[in-house]
Amino acid sequence: MNNINRLTLEQEFKIALYINQINLLNKKSTKKYLTYVLKKMMIKDNVIRYCIKNTSN
After folding, report:
1. Structural domain of residue 44, as residue ranges?
2. Is 43 a domain residue?
């Protein structure tokens, strides 16, 4: 259970790529990109909740 909050090597690599992309953006673009990412995370949460809810039935 201790490893549940750790990122895989692939995830660490993706984070590094995102950091490189973000560093190239100006402040306005960074805010727009952050909003986009947060929206995608919320959609992912909704999909996970939906799957969990419908697999228990």
Report:
1. 11-55
2. yes
What number of CA atoms fall less than 13 Å from residue 24's CA on the CB side?
6
Q: What is the pLDDT of residues 1-57, one digit of tens each?
A: 567 779 999 999 999 998 998 899 999 999 998 899 999 999 999 999 999 999 876
Which pLDDT does position 13 carry in this prediction?
Answer: 97
Domain count, the chain: 1
CA distances from 42 to 3, 13, 35, 46, 56 (A): 23, 22, 11, 6, 22
Nearest 5°: CA angle at 1, between 40 and 49? 35
